[in-house]
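Before relying on records like the one below, remember that each one covers exactly one chain. Contacts with other chains, cofactors or solvent are not represented anywhere in the record.
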Amino acid sequence: MEARSAIRWYCGSLLAVVVALFLTASLGTTDGAAGDLKATCAATPHPDACVRALQAADPAAAAKSTTPRGLAEAAIRAASTAGAAAGEYARREMDVSKDNGVWQCLNECAEDIEEALSHLDDSEGDDAKLREVNKFLDTAEQDAWDCDDSCKGAPNNTVKATLLAKNKDFEALMAVALSLIKRVTAGDAPAPSSSSPP
């Protein structure tokens, strides 16, 4: 069962990379659209990661990605893709790891990443679902797992370094998604009272 799940994640990740390469080669952006995207991403915690992720949006999402909601949904998809790649990498390396510390590091990080991915699924089209993702990401930002802590006891090697780098990308894209979702859901919050002190 885990092998099928890992293969599905791998295929999904591979498909996302192929789509991103195709779009980069064939579509391009206009200077105005690129400027708007850069301005939007400048307001996120990781502007460079935001621009890279949103420029790699799939063709079906590209038309919707100019709206704040479309950008938020594109960021969620990008975070999901990065998380799937990190989780799949961890699970694949667990199958060949001989070191108990590295195996434990991979397992704990994979479990946390998979939990996060379960909250990012099916966030499109429904305001209630978008608010749920917002709530999860807001909580995750405050109580985030830390693969660095899970991997402290593991020896430094390329497997650990690669996992931590992939996890860092995933966390950056979750922070970008949260920032963009907050722009969309800001109208949902009650307006502050305008009473002034005497």
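The chain has one domain: 2-24+46-185.
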